[in-house]
Amino acid sequence: MDLAVKVIQRFTGLPEEAITDKSDLKEDLMMDSVTLYEIVSTLESEYGVEEDIPFGELEKVKTVKDLKEAIQKYVIKD
């Protein structure tokens, strides 16, 4: 299980199998914007932030896959 799923699971209490890349954060995982922000903050902390995800980008995050891509693009630097 990847870190993003672990953190989502920690905040939502949902089982691992309920959290897929296609899961809609609001519709499927019942996440509100505050919870999303808390998850992103936790992921930024866990990964060691080099650059915070811009707020405008967070508004575009709809699915778990979108969240992972945002983390990859803005937080994890090679």
Descriptive account of the structure:
The protein has 78 residues and is an all-alpha fold. The chain has one domain (3-74): ACP-like (Non-ribosomal Peptide Synthetase Peptidyl Carrier Protein, Chain A, Orthogonal Bundle), CATH 1.10.1200. Helices cover 51% and strands 0% of the residues. The protein is built from 4 helices and no strands. The longest helix has 15 residues, at 33-47. The model has no long low-confidence stretch (mean pLDDT 87).
As residue ranges, the low-confidence spans are none
Rg from Cα = 11 Å
- Examine the secondary-structure arrangement and name the CATH architecture: Orthogonal Bundle
The CATH homologous superfamily name equals ACP-like
Portion of residues in beta strands equals under 5%
Quote the average pLDDT. Answer: 87
Major sheet size, sense and barrel closure: none
